[in-house]
Amino acid sequence: MSDVAVPAARWRSALSVVLLVVVVVLVPLSLTARWAHATVTNTAGYLAAVQPVASDPEVQAAISDRITDTIVGRLDVPGVRALVQGPVERFVRSDAFASLWTAANREAHHQFVGVVTGEGTSALSVRDDTVSVDVGGVVASIRQSLVDQGVTIAERIPDIEIQFPIFESDHLVTAQRIFGALDRGRWLFPAAAIVCVAGAITVARVRLCAGAVAALCVALGTGLLALVIVIGRALYLRALPAAVPATAARVVFDSLVAPLWHAIGDVVAVAVAVAIVLGLTRLIAGRARSVVGQAARSPKL
């Protein structure tokens, strides 16, 4: 190798490494941006994620307790909890509540998107540094259901405002900036990642090896995203306001993040498979060249 070729080869190797490091950063950003657009800011995707939450026993228990406590507090009648709690629990487990849950989440999602995108909505309130949405419309249906079941005292239940916390307002500006950046980059991040992978392979001295390493870098970046989700989940649940039931918050968080976990699993599986195939191809090609070289050097009879 000439004196000029050696520095050139080193620069190509260094550039390939830099591009692969960028890939490790871009892959989690790409997955998160696509997930945020398809699930968090898209109403259909959001509803598909949260609809099953209504049938979760922990969520049902938390909602039943919240509704029962609110009704009992407003009626202020001795022994009313025993009359109200059972019907409320049955209603929360019914198909009628599942429909109300979907409708409430559809409205809440429109309001949530308005907040995180900075467009705003008058239906939201900010109290004690917590952004909340009013879901008191459910009370009217519960009141009628209780009356239909013979709990006549339920006629005294007034229209009640029930604020359901979404997140702390201290993080509102940060959330707007993050979601804005992710939304703008949902096409840019994946495209940049593809360009970097192609560039790293193109400038590499051994392209099969570079391709295998690139696939492993994709898997590494995806694995880092999984680690961030696990840590972020723990921090999120630890920082919940006292007004938010921890069990219900955990179920909702897991339901929203479930599509992202599926994407992580798919990307890791494909990336590892590609790395194995390219690695085996490189190994087989190297052995084939070795055999051909030995045959060429062996003396002819």
From TrEMBL:
Claim: Membrane is one of the keywords in the record: yes
Membrane-crossing residue ranges in chain numbering: 187-206, 213-236, 256-280
This protein's UniProt keywords: Membrane, Transmembrane, Transmembrane helix
Protein name: Integral membrane protein
UniProt organism field: Gryllotalpicola reticulitermitis
